[in-house]
Specification:
Largest sheet: 3 strands, antiparallel
Order of helices and strands: HHEHHEEHH
Helix content: 55-70%
Number of helices: 6
Number of domains: 1
Length: 141
């Protein structure tokens, strides 16, 4: 028999898969869930830009992983690169005006998907779960 802690983590993993499938509906905007999260983070960051390494850390992936996610977004013009005037070794990922537009459109869809998933749940339960996930490292904001 496995521990309740291990079972919890396995169920969180399954839940992540279920949520990802529901958010496949963002494809009408040309985005996946990770793309949407990247645009959200950039849109809410100072000056709508962030160092790649900081973005990777915020999402919880490696620097090479964030580069793989950013390349297609850069090719379609949703994000761009900006150099640092003081240090040529540092570059930033910036959300483009088109990226902001697509993000705002996708936000409406994402909110509707979220309501569909969580509408029947109680606010107190959501707060408790949210606090718990934050403690485990699920702290995008």
């Amino acid at each position: 028999m496995i521990s309740s802690e291990l079972l919890l983590l396995m169920n969180i993993n399954k839940l992540q898969s279920v949520i990802s499938r529901k958010f496949d509906a963002l494809s009408v905007h040309g985005l996946g869930l990770n793309d949407f999260i990247i645009l959200y983070i950039l849109n809410t960051s100072t000056e709508s830009k962030m160092r790649r390494i900081d973005l990777a850390e915020k999402i919880g992936i490696t620097a090479s992983g964030v580069t793989r996610l950013l390349n297609p977004l850069e090719k379609i013009g949703l994000v761009g690169r900006e150099t640092n005037d003081r240090d040529a070794r540092v570059s930033y990922v910036v959300i483009t005006p088109n990226g902001k537009k697509i993000f705002e459109e996708a936000m409406l869809s994402a909110e509707n998907i979220t309501k569909d998933i969580l509408a029947p749940k109680k606010n107190k339960s959501l707060r408790t779960v949210s606090d718990f996930l934050f403690e485990l490292g699920g702290n995008i904001q």
